[in-house]
Design brief:
Layout lengths: L1 H13 L8 H13 L1 H22 L8 H8 L12 H23 L22 H7 L1 H8 L3 H6 L1
Helix pairs in contact: 1-2, 1-3, 2-3
Length: 157
């Protein structure tokens, strides 16, 4: 009985290829497999699994597409017959920009002629007589009243 259990363990661990099994246990395991139909079926399953894994490993792995593969399709087509731009055109556009900026500076930059603006009189602020509350707030007691923490504030500190 231990030989059947060990033969099943060898099939599960090493697969159907008996050349991978330990040499000192190979003979006893093969004898146990030949005597037991359940072990023979287990060996057949292992052979099918080994064949499937061998076929999977031999299949070529497709190369993943990358951004570089799609880049030529994303680029615009080359311009076939491009005409050179005339040299005078660049100077004309630059001169026009200079003329426009000078015109804007003349219109908005010069002061308008005319009478000088008259300054408005400053508003008069009426003086208010201090009250008793104002005098109390200016005294040291008023300062202490505002800036001395309460018992709840002391707990927070």
């Amino acid at each position: 009985m231990p030989t059947k259990i060990r033969a099943a363990a060898l099939i599960d661990a090493f697969g159907a290829d008996t050349a991978r099994w330990p040499a000192d246990e190979r003979g006893a395991a093969l004898a146990a497999i030949a005597a037991d139909p359940a072990l023979t079926a287990r060996l057949a399953e292992a052979q099918a699994l080994d064949a499937g894994l061998a076929a999977w490993a031999a299949a070529p792995v497709p190369r993943a597409r990358s951004f570089a593969d799609d880049l030529p399709a994303l680029l615009p087509a080359p311009i076939v017959a491009a005409r050179p731009r005339p040299l005078w055109r660049g100077f004309a556009l630059g001169g026009g920009a200079v003329a426009a900026s000078l015109a804007v500076a003349l219109v908005f930059g010069l002061p308008a002629s005319g009478p000088a603006p008259v300054a408005a009189p400053a508003p008069q602020i009426a003086a208010v007589a201090p009250t008793d509350a104002d005098a109390a707030m200016q005294a040291p007691e008023g300062f202490a009243l505002i800036f001395t923490p309460t018992a709840d504030e002391e707990d927070l500190i």
